[in-house]
Amino acid sequence: MSDTITKDASAPAGGNDPKTAPAKTEKPERVASLWSDAIRDLRRNPLFIIGGVLVLALIVISVVPGWFTDGSPFDNGACDLSHSLERPSADHWFGYDVQGCDNYTRTIWGARNSIIVGILTTTVVTLVGSLLGLWAGWKGGVIDSILSRVTEIFFSIPTLLGGMLIMSMLPFSGNAYSVSLVMAVLGWPQIFRIMRASVLSNKNNDYVMAARALGAGAGRITFRHILPNAIAPVIVVAAISLGVFIGAEAALSYLGIGVQSPQISWGLMISDAQVRFLAAPHVLLFPAAVLSVTVLAFIMLGDAVRDALDPKLR
Questions:
Q1: Euclidean distance between CA atoms 210 and 203, whole angstroms
Q2: What is the C-alpha separation between 291 and 114, in angstroms, rounded?
Q3: Please, which of 102, 155, 223, 308 could form a disulfide with 41 given CB 3.0 to 4.6 Å?
Q4: Do 291 and 246 meet the contact criterion of CB atoms below 8 Å apart?
Q5: How many CA atoms within 13 Å lie on the side-chain side of 38?
Q6: Residue 197, number of CB atoms within 10 A of its CB
Q7: Strand, helix or coil at 94?
Q8: What would the pLDDT profile of 163-218 be if each residue is shown by its tens digit?
């Protein structure tokens, strides 16, 4: 009797043989990291999706404006003074400007210069500011002091005054590339400060000390360990700055020191339309509305990236 009880007790519950029981498949553990968590959060963030769709549409418009309008404002006979200041209609959605040019066509083609300025300026500012900030934060000492003082000098220069001064010295001006160069010269110190502060907060961490103890060189430590962990705040600021630079280009063009005729930009269109605003408000409102949506789209994108990359906001 006791043998029977012992035998029954040792049997698995339910009378199933472990050898015949179906094996349970274990799910692979997800490796958590800042970047993987950020990508997952961005996919679920409606702010990022809306901003990304708008930005993608604007980039497509700037690259191939002919897909969205039949003509070009640079064609012969594109403007007809007999249509000057005509109001919007079913055939011409945005109406005509003072010179009798189709306002919709000019608004579409004006996206190219604005997007070029935003992307090119952000790229140059991010590269220059990041490399200098990485160098200053890692080296410290005299190099850090010199670069920090130079940065303070650039911060003391008013943007509009500095822009006018630099534009007057350039052999080429009045186009998107000269405006990008001016804003890059005045805009890199912000990225420099952010990268420098991020490097200073990361270079004494345990993983850097471990890499040094294992004999890793300065270049490997800088670009393999410090840079990937210090670049996140720079990406956030760069994403937000895209919209800011587009707005700054419009402001410079509005004041007459940015993109010049016969080139087209939204700021230049707003400047030309201001004197006839009361008589024909549509000439100013449509490019101003498109400019506002563009800046808003890039800022939405930057805010979503900031929320995803900032651990304090999780």
A1: 11
A2: 9
A3: 308
A4: yes
A5: 19
A6: 14
A7: coil
A8: 878 887 877 777 888 888 888 888 899 899 999 988 888 777 777 778 777 777 76
